[in-house]
Amino acid sequence: MSLALGVLALPALARDPATSSDPPTAKEMADMIDRPENLVAWRELADRVLARDP
Q1: Cα 10 from Cα 47, distance rounded (Å)
Q2: Would you say residue 38 has pLDDT above 80?
Q3: Which of 37, 44, 35, 36 is nearest to 17 (CA)?
Q4: Which pLDDT band, with edges at 50, 70 and 90, does 5 fall under?
Q5: DSSP state of 53
Q6: What's the whole-model pTM score?
Q7: Please, how many CA atoms are within 13 Å of residue 53, restricted to the half-sphere of its CB?
Q8: pLDDT score, position 54
Q9: Which residue of 4, 12, 38, 40 is 20 to 30 Å from 46, comparing CA positions?
Q10: Looking at residue 1, what DSSP letter applies?
Q11: How far apart (Å, rounded) are the C-alpha atoms in residues 12 and 24?
């Protein structure tokens, strides 16, 4: 039963690329290339990552 609860909690713990300071995953990078309207959000993410680890 605890495994089922853990699986249900995973989406709530998922990383939000718009607010996270972690580097983007390969899938997120591919999505950025496929959808150029996200470039502003990705630029903000890059600024946060660089501010944390110059």
Answers
A1: 27
A2: no
A3: 44
A4: very low
A5: -
A6: 0.36
A7: 6
A8: 64
A9: 12
A10: -
A11: 18
Contacts (Cβ under 8 Å, ≥6 apart) of 8? none
Q: Which residue has the tokens 């990383």?
A: 15
Q: DSSP string of 15-42?
A: --TTT--SPPPHHHHHHHHH-GGGHHHH
Angle (CA) 49 50 53, round 5° = 85
User: Cα–Cα distances in Å, from 17 out to 12, 14, 20?
Assistant: 14, 9, 5
Distance CA 53, CA 34 (A): 27
Mean pLDDT (the chain) is 70
Distance, CA of 53 to CA of 37 (rounded, Å): 26
Q: Which amino acid is located at 31 in the chain?
A: D
φ and ψ at 19, to 5 degrees?
A: -120, -10
